Structures are given as C-alpha cells and as structure tokens.
Amino acid sequence: MRIQKTKKQQKYFWIAFFITPGLLMVFVFILLPLFMSMFNSMFDWNNYNRLGFIGLNNFKTLFTGYYYSERFFNAIQNNLKWFVMTMLIQNVFGLYFGYMLSRRINGSEVFKRIFFIPVLFSITAVGFLWGLYLKPNGLINSFLALINAEHLQRAWLGDGKIATYTIILVNIWRWTGFPTLVFMSSVDALPIENIEAAYIDGANELNIFFKIVLPLIVPAITTITVLTIIGSLNVFEQVYVMAGVDGQPNYSTDTICTLFYRTAFGTYDSSSPVIGVGSAMSVIIYLLTFFFSITSISWLQKKEVEI
After folding, report:
1. Residue 53: strand pairing partners
2. Fewer beta carbons within 10 angstroms: which end of the chain, N or C?
3. pLDDT per residue over 12-39, tens digit each?
4. What does the CA dihedral 284, 261, 169, 148 come to, rounded to 10 degrees?
C-alpha cells in the first residue's frame, strides 16, 4: 500500500511540476492583467493616480461620450473589415491552396515554401518594406506606370477610402501560408479510403471536396476561425508600422488596439493618459474576443463529422 501511495504521490508531483509553469504564465500574462484592467476601469484617474470609485462610468464614457464613442465605433468597424476580408480572402485561398498542395501537384514542395516564407518575416520588416513600396513614388505606382496603367496609381496609404484595405491585403499576403499549411496537413491526415471510394462511385472533385473533405476538416476550420477572430480584434503592429498609432489618414486605419494605445498612454489626440477609459476598452476587447471565439467554436463543433 505504501509503495502504491508513493507512486501516486510521484505521479501527482510530476503532473504538478510540468503544468505549474504553464499555469503561472497564464495567470501572470493573461488573468492578472485582465483582473487589473477590470479593477482599474471602475475608478476615476488623474494621469497615473487612482482616484475615487465610479462604477461603470468609464464604460458609459466609452460608448456615449463625445469623441470616444465616435472613435470607438469607427475602430470596431475597421476591426470588422479585418475579420471579413481575412476570412473571405486569406482563409478561403488558404483552404484552396492547402487542398491543391495535398493533391501533390507538380512543384508542390516548392509552392509550400513560397507560401510560408512571408510568415517567417517579422511584422515590422513587412510593414516597413510595404510602406516603402506603397508610397506615391514607390515600387507599386512605378510598376503601374511601367505597364501604362497610370490610371490605377493611388496614394495607397494616404487615401482614407483605401488605406485600411491596403494594410489588410498586406497582412493577408504575409499570413496566407499559415492556413494553407494547416489545411494541407488536415487533408493529408484524412483516410484515403474514403476519397478512393468516392472516386469509384463516380464522384467528381467538387463533390469530393464539399461532401467529404470539407466536413472532415471542420476542426481545422474551427482553429483557423478562432485565430482569425483573435487576430482581427487585436490588430496593432501592422497598422502601427504602416500608418502610425494615430490611425491616419483621418482615423481611417484606426483599430480598437491603436485607439486603446492612444487612450491609455496619452499620445497624439490625448495629451495625458486616460487609464480608466483605456482599461474599459481593454475589457471590451477581451469580452468581444471571448464571446465570438466561444460562439464560433460552439457553432462549428456541431458541424464536425467523425471519421
């Protein structure tokens, strides 16, 4: 009995030994900042000095106050654009490329590397280089002039109507390789017998894809969707590098995170930090991320098909 008890104790010790560092990381870098943000959002602030308790007034200011509500809902619209375009372009093309690469087309090994190489680049380098390419006298407009397409030349990052879409497309160029490899790996893991049986029964490529492959790779679709939601609601670096933290031109590239940065740290249009409203904004970011992630997981899991 003592030997069995000792073995159980050792087992629990090693379990605790391996999971404790991960739990500490989650607590220190996720849960603690969240609780501190929720706590700070309930107080009035004078720069970095916490004043009296004001309940949900900071949230009220965020949603109804002059300036904040306009900027906040404008930023949410831009985050929605990020999500929709990423889902419709990046992930759809990633699914298509991943499926085609899994079919072992000619040069598939080369294409794998071509698709994934941009993912390895740092976001700062990508943003800086594309910022140079997209200048009025940059590579893109010079190329359009070379092929006699001057009518297509634009101030890609200076026109408020297209600046956000331009930055999103750059981000899509960088990240398309990731869903491509995820979907390719998922298709490769499918039992070949199912697909071969469908071919024998006379199914064409479209039927095989939509009736067999797509339902069986829903777990991969769920993963990519959740990552897209998280990424779209936490957009910061790409916009910061290419358009600045002030969301220029005229806030057209603003996102929730760039607005949070300006509010919490007091830059550009806020001469002093507004910790209370900034904390309320960070709580909203977390709640939106949590809600939409859980909703998408719940909905997509109902679509999963057991092999």
Report:
1. 43
2. N
3. 888 888 899 888 998 888 888 888 989 9
4. 140
User: How far is residue 169 from each of residues 73, 112, 159, 165, 269, measured CA to CA in Å?
Assistant: 22, 20, 15, 6, 27
Alpha helices in 121-272 (DSSP H): 123-133, 139-146, 163-175, 177-188, 192-200, 205-208, 214-216, 218-233, 237-243, 256-265
Q: What is the pLDDT of residue 267?
A: 64
Q: Choose which CATH entry (3.40.50.920, 3.40.50.2000, 3.90.550.10, 1.10.3720.10) describes domain 57-301.
A: 1.10.3720.10
Phi, psi (deg, nearest 5) at residue 50 = -75, 130
Tokens read off for 234: 């936490």
Is residue 72 packed enough to be buried (19+ CB in 10 Å), middle (13-18) or exposed (0-12)? buried
- Residue 120 is encoded by which pair of tokens? 């390895």
Contact 67, 58 (CB under 8 A): no
